[in-house]
Amino acid sequence: MITGASSGLGLELAKQFAHNGYDIAISGSSDRIFEAATIIRDLGVEAYPHKADAAKYDGVEDFWNFVSELNRPIEAAVLNVGIGLGGAFAETDLEDELRLISINISGTVHMAKRVVKHMLPNGRGKILIVSSISATQPTPYETVYGPSKAFGFSFAESLREELRGTGVTVTALLPGATDTNFHSNAGMDSSEIGSSEKNDKVLVAKQGYEALMSDEDHVIGGDEETKQKAIENRTTPETVKAARHAKQARLQD
Ligand SMILES: NC(=O)c1ccc[n+]([C@@H]2O[C@H](COP(=O)([O-])OP(=O)(O)OC[C@H]3O[C@@H](n4cnc5c(N)ncnc54)[C@H](OP(=O)(O)O)[C@@H]3O)[C@@H](O)[C@H]2O)c1
């Protein structure tokens, strides 16, 4: 199962699973999820699309019930759905930020709870949590987004350790900026990041899939430059990283 798979990284991850013979349940909030299912079926596996709003408790529960009713053991769960939000904190709408927190944090915890309780009695299962390189640095002008992804990274590493020896594994994928609709949807087209060249989503999805299958605790998604940036982020002072990100993420007039 993969959340947020109408397009972007979720759909690319679904293709990785399809190429490896998995049938896949996918969720999205728009009718595009049904088009995604057609794309997946064309790769020779079954796709089970479901439209549900991951920002709402009932939406998360609804997709989980849909997956449960398929009555098949879940081999792998990709908690991918997430949204961004650009702009100065003093000017962005609180409602948008609370919605982001609902999807990126509450929704991830909610679905992880259902998935873990399903996988543990089976004694097997793989969970991929899509975080971000933003988890390794402050993200001014995306001041709520970055912390929501830091939550995902720490949550994944914590859960992984708790589940050690149970047969259920947890991996975090931390992509750098990637060529999906993400930045546009976040209102960041006019920022330096929004208009810069990005990582190939096919490469990032492949790296996430392979890290999940080889039971790595986490993987940076992207090219060598992205991986190098993540390494440097370990020792670069937070204030330096914050200033750099502010320049890249600030919206231009
Ligand atoms: N792209 C990047 O640069 C980047 C970098 C690091 C991490 N990430 C992470 O990667 C993940 C996927 O992002 P992406 O780049 O693929 O973004 P995207 O192109 O905007 O795709 C988002 C996906 O989530 C679905 N979605 C959005 N809101 C939803 C909701 N309320 N309920 C259910 N589904 C919803 C969308 O489907 P519908 O349109 O049908 O709702 C779509 O399939 C996110 O967690 C993001 O934080 C992305």
From TrEMBL:
Gene3D superfamilies: NAD(P)-binding Rossmann-like Domain. GO terms for molecular function: oxidoreductase activity. Residues 215-253 are annotated as: Disordered. Keywords: Oxidoreductase. Residues 242-253 have a biased composition (Basic residues). Residues 215-232 have a biased composition (Basic and acidic residues). It comes from the Bacteria. The keyword NADP does not apply. InterPro entries: NAD(P)-bd_dom_sf (IPR036291), SDR_fam (IPR002347). The keyword Oxidoreductase applies. Belongs to the short-chain dehydrogenases/reductases (SDR) family. This is Oxidoreductase. The lineage of its organism: Bacteria, Bacillati, Bacillota, Bacilli, Bacillales.
